[in-house]
Amino acid sequence: MTEWTDAETFARALERAETKEKGNCFEDFSEGDRIEHDPGLTLTRWGNESWMSQTLNHDPAYWRTDAAAARGFDEPPIHPDYLTAATLGITVEDLSEKGGYFLGRTNVRFPEAPVYPGTELRVESEVLERVTSSSRPQYGIVTWRTRGLDAETGDVFCSYERTNMIPRRQPVETDGGSAGATSTDDDPDDGLPAEFVTPEGGYFEDFAAALEDADGRDAAVAYRHERGRTQDDVTVASLPLATLNTAKQHHNADVMGDSPSGGIVTYGDVTRSTALGHARSDERTWREVGFDDERFHTFVASGDTIYAFTRVLEAEDDADSPEAGTVRFEHIAFNQDDEPVYSGTRTAEIQKRSGN
Description:
By secondary structure, the protein is an alpha+beta fold. The chain has 2 domains: 1-24 and 171-231 and 266-356, Thiol Ester Dehydrase, Chain A, CATH 3.10.129.10; 26-167, Thiol Ester Dehydrase, Chain A. Helix content is 22%, strand content 33%. The chain has 8 helices and 13 strands. It has helices at 7-16, 45-54, 65-70, 80-95, 204-214, 233-242, 253-256, 268-280, and strands at residues 18-20, 34-43, 102-109, 119-132, 139-150, 156-167, 195-197, 219-225, 229-230, 285-296, 305-316, 324-334, 340-351. The strands form 2 sheets. Strands 1, 7, 8, 9, 10, 11, 12 and 13 form an 8-stranded mixed β-sheet that branches. The model is unreliable at 171-185 (pLDDT under 50).
């Protein structure tokens, strides 16, 4: 039986696996396109105060009820800087995650009425213009008009026009990875399947079709996810402490200096959740059912980057459920050195395209 988390075997699996890319390239945009961005965001007092404190915005009207009342507010409102950042942040996955320079933003406007914590924000964009870059042929230039709206009333809270350089799609992949890539005669006898099949999308039908494609052949439905998350002070120390996890290995560098890890390490559930977040971003999760056989393989520390790899093990259609079918996955988190750091099996209900 193949041990997928053996370091050498897993490294060879990564070489064959297609990467499920995130974001859009220049060619994916057309003038006049309208984009509804998911997810939305509830504007909270915590988010507002976190943004203001970290950016040294100390206007008392946004912190204290007496100062807010003196300015005519019912309570400390959402700061325009946080509102702008939240509106733009929601758009990044669809518009600019691929990278490219942020060239500018104009016509940033806010309503006269204040926006208060607890308001649900919905964001939409329209492609205004796309032009070729004369100085950087590997990029194009795209301009969008974006609006942040009250999800309940449709009132516009924030609007602006943003221009970015966006990478063009390369006509030929340079990393050697592609769906259905096969091993060569020079491959070692590592027990890995000869072919890796990648689902076309993230719905239940896509996973079921990929498994059917691989059935009866020396093939597996397996792929890697593009996103990575480098561990920092927030993930290593702040997140565990926010859950009341006071284990010294996450925040006491003095004590941990003499430990096998040589320093503080990331809470295992942070590593796990990060990898699962990468995986879920490439699927239509309906409901989590359960997890089994979870293992942690090596330390994760500040500065390490967490990536994720997924195998689809089985898919079961429930005819009585028009919304979703059940899929079982194996997820492997790995670091910047392609070393497995976490693995486990997961069962989840995945939304059906027919039930959308």
